[in-house]
Amino acid sequence: MLAGPPVCPSCIICLPALHRCSSLCLSYSFPGGPVPVRLPPYTPQHGQLQCPPTTMAARDTSSLLVGLLVLFHTWGAWAGVEVNMEDRVEVYRGETAQITCMFTSFDGVSGMPIQWFYTTRSGNKQRIYYQNSTKNGVDGGTPFTDRISVNGTGASGEIVLTINAVELEDELEFICSIKTGEGRTQLKVFETPGPPSIEGVQTGISVNEYSKIGTCEVKNGFPKPNIAWYRNNTPLRAVQNVLKMVPSITTESSGLFSVKSELSMTVRKEDKDDLFYCEVTYFVPGGLRMTETNQINITVYYPSTAVSVWVESPKGKIKEGDSIELHCNGNGNMPSSILSFSYGEGKTLEGNMLVLDNVTRLNSGVYHCSSMDTDTFEEVSGNTTVFINYLDPAVVMPKDSAVVTMGKEFKATCNALSSLQTHTVWFKDEVEVSVGHSLILKDATFDTAGTYTCVVTVPEIEGMETSGTLDVNVQGPPQIINPDFTEVKKSLQEMVDLSCNVRGFPAPSVIWSTSDGKILKTTSQTETKEGVESVVSIKVTADITAFCNASNDFGNDAVTFNITAIDLFSAKPTPTPAATTTSSTIPATTSSTTIPDNTSSSTIPATTSSTTIPDNTSSTAIPAATEGNGVIIAVIIICILLLAILGSVLYFLYKKGKICGRSGKQDLTKEKTSKDNIVVEMKSDSTEEAVLLGVNGDKQSPRTQ
Predict the structure, then answer these.
(1) pTM (global) more than 0.85
(2) Predicted local confidence at residue 657, as pLDDT
């Protein structure tokens, strides 16, 4: 704001109260007199008053004085109202627009007539609202009759026109007229378009052909959206006969705009990898927005200039037995081209893949692949060399088996022919014994004998291996492997199995014999890797000494087995402790019965029996291994006891005269002869004394029997 009255050019009237220059200036037009000319208002800037220059400067002082006189006489008629409005108001379609009109006047702002107009498409002014000191209202019959309202009476120097549900047709110029002043605002309406779309050509395009690439489209925007094409993030520019972008605009029934752009160009081989897309720009209230489509590429057809051939699988080196897969591909892209393999002696296969199963070294060689264009019959080819690695079966020398003399050194070799470096390891009983092609065995023993396996591998290729075996025999005198036992105690009548395991080569012959020179029959004889295993079964009838005699061309060896017979009725201990011992005591019964007869007499010995009773006189321990024999012995003892009891009963009856029709006491002394008497002999387990009883009950000496 200026501190004092501004200074205006001579043709401009300065308004000190408003601190600005008047928008009116007088010019003279002869002979008609002065004519007022409206100039745009200017506000001082940076503290200095600036007014627009006049085009009609006074030529002399007298003319200026005349003009000032006329101005003062007409001041009451046109002195002024100044109206200020925004140049434009922007709003989305369907929203509410507010247009503000601000004004000032020397006479005050109260009660001034106010009118709102809009400019029609033909350029005419159409009033839509009026207001004065007595009334106001909305004009009928206009597109805005039902959609506008005015806020404010003008008393504050400001009045606002509100337009509801703005339509595209509302994009017009609106005029605020107050007394002699007026202002204008352009209403701009916007509609955001839908997302853009892009579509490329679906068919391939031959190289050097001028063809359509794709179409971009955006719909329902206002004002009209713009479309720009890009290739690999670089904007495209039209080039005559090379590249062209043709837009087309469609006005929808709603008044919105849809825009389509078609891109065409001369295709090059390099375009096969290019990415095309569109950028759409459109206006919105207060600015500009942009959106992009997705990217597309095109299929370019071009002939091959070279063909590549390679082994797809297996990766790395190939060995015999593998299945290999070869692929072939040209560097062109022509639907009319045909690929074919040729290999071996005139073998061909159409296609870009060749599979060979269980290959051998004979499949090594050069494999060709060619690509021929069936339209032009031009052909290009390529090739690759395939090598099949091999590993022959292992060859072991000596072959199959070998014989080495005990104490001597032995050498064997193992080799396998291969296309690659090999590694050899020797094993015996799955234990590694040597590394390298040669196997050296020093100071051979029977432990040296056995089966040796050599394994040959190719370190460069996993799973590529072969193997061979060699049986080594060490010749020497037989050696009997120490048996588990040589001393045996067994009950009488039991069977004993004796085993003799002999090492030696050639395989020893084994003969079993006893100390009395008897040759025993072998129960079984089996050849083993080290020699022979022989088994003999012997029935124990007494103490026995048995011999295992082994011999071959280089010597002999023998081992002695001692078998001790155990009598269950003797006091000797059993060879092994019983697993379970059951003891029972049967009281000994001593009796003597003499039965007289005319011709003979018999003596029945009494029996004393004791089973597994540990004492100082008699005991029998039945081992668990001979439990069945113990049962038999118990039965025998019971039978003997029953016989003794029977003899006692008979003797008692005889004495009472209950036998042979006799009664009372009989003379039993007649016809006594030692051979006719019935004698009962009683023996004790602890003595060899025999007690002889005659028919009269007297003891007899053994001589009288």
Answers:
(1) no
(2) 67
